[in-house]
From TrEMBL:
This is Prefoldin subunit 4. Keywords: Chaperone, Coiled coil. The keyword Kinase does not apply. Pfam families: Prefoldin_2. Heterohexamer of two PFD-alpha type and four PFD-beta type subunits. PANTHER family: PREFOLDIN SUBUNIT 4. One of its GO terms (biological process) is protein folding. It comes from Coffea canephora (Robusta coffee).
Amino acid sequence: MQQAGSSGSETEVTWEDQQKINQFSRLNNRFHELEDEIKLAKETNDNLEDASNELILTDDDIVRFQIGEVFAHIAKDGVETRIEQMKEVTSKNLEKLEEEKESIVAQMDELKKILYGKFKDSINLEED
């Protein structure tokens, strides 16, 4: 399908072009996976922060702590330490995910420049 006002000639898609288009598609898929993973990591961080705040408010020396499917009765100090460790791990993971997302966005932007430079309006790499 030709655009109104176009010259009528279509740019040929080479094997290298197809590889770039495929790479863009893989990056785009990973980008969306990362967005979901980042959202989950942020929710986990928020939940850990809420749990930490609840611990501050409790007067109990022994608290229930969920490990998998089971609740264990653990000393409040031990739970505070565990939650802090979990927050640290989750924060580092979130940071790593954010860095990967930035890298993917940069790679996608570079591929967009190359592909739009060659194919102009004949290709659409934008989300709807």
